[in-house]
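Quick entry, no commentary yet.
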Amino acid sequence: MHLGERLQLPRIPAAKDPEPRWPAAIAVVAVMALYFFALPANLTLGPAWLMPVVICAFLLPTAISHQLGHHRFNVIFGTIMLGLITLFIVAAIIKLVHHLNLHDELPSRMLVSAGSLWIANILVFASWYWRLDAGGPQARDQRPGHCQGSFLFPQMTMTEEDRMDAGHDGWSPGFVDYLFLAFNTSTALSPADTAVLSRWAKGMMMIQSTISLSVIVLLAARAVNVL
């Protein structure tokens, strides 16, 4: 090595801040609010207050276990909570289809209900993708960057130099990235700029697209009847 030649050491990634959990918590609260305030009694599974009470019973221990560092319990409580939310939303959509055929609700009420369930569908599946991709948020926090997972985000295809130039050095997806993915799936019925790699993710996106398409068709049919 020449005297004037500098020794090039590998760059050590900067410490990564833990991913905030509050966006995912807000999404859960938003789904509960839509369910409780926007749906008529004949579309809810049991009394309208049942779903918020049951979900809060899991949301609180999910948040507490995260704060205490009990990540295994956090995953268990969070997964059960999302499963129950999905059950309540799917049951409401099935009831919506049934009551549309009965014509026992005002068209405007049905439109509000369908729109609320469409939004809830986006929030629920965004939460699933956020919870499951690449081992979940806790596992993603342990890595300096995001180079593998069930979804191929555009940042993952960039070179290290390009990421640094774009200000995405050490980039890792957060809840908003999965929300954008779920929104595209429900509107364009495709993941848009993000490729889907794993089978579980493809299956869930097929389910989400089917639910979204069903609600959109119901909205269009009811809108035609109103007109």
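second:
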Amino acid sequence: MKAAAVPIAVPRSRLADFFVFTKVRVNALVVATTAGGFYMASPDALNVALLIGTVIGTALVAGGAAALNQISERDIDGLMDRTRLRPLPDGRMKLGEARLIAWTCCLSGIALLAGIANALAAVVAAITLVTYVWVYTPMKRATSFSTVVGAVPGALPPMIGWAAARNAIDAPAWALFFIIFLWQLPHFLAIAWLYREDYARAALPMLPVVEPDGASTARQALLYATALVPMSILPAALGMAGLIYAIAALALGLAFVAMGIRFAMHRTKPNARLLFLTSLIYLPAVWAVMMLDRT
């Protein structure tokens, strides 16, 4: 018997609905990578007020983008077990209220970044918003390549932090971008495999839906995890971090690859879940060691 996807529990308050609508829990990673990018770009004297303002501004834009995504996909969300109890498909939030919340978050976040940081940080945040809501979101209905496209806005938050701290986008910022870009792909391919029945129910052409045997899903997950290994060492090569970071990044990357190989050999839900859980450990660990071993 196939395991059913577990829907999100119905929130018991308006505040809880707001948190679900703006994906506060998921966007905690956005905030963390933004703060990491800011820290890595900062001089020895950290500007705490600027860091806080940058994090809040980015969190607002990310929350608004998530809300606009849910507005656009409210029909799809209503078809999938794991999303049907979100505020819009469940009828707990009106469309006008949803739009007001979404646009207030987006515009106030971009304005805060422009005011407290600089125009470059605000522009990068605006690009993140546009690519997520008006490029990636509609592509999800048309092609499995949307997963790759969606990794672009997902990898931009550390560049927002970098731009806020340094008012520039240089090679080290791109290194942070590509680490998160490559990390997202095995992470989301594992999720797509775990919830492939849900995606099929909503007629979303995710890779495990288009190619149900999972061979392409596993092969691509392994390919991106393997490419992540040399990319994750690049910050040490660029002088951003030291030898301790390089060793840790290599070890963590090889462990990630090992889980990719395990999934490729046996495409089961437990192995996909193990790959997903490994991804959840990998990124915070790499980010933490990089920040601790910053040169």
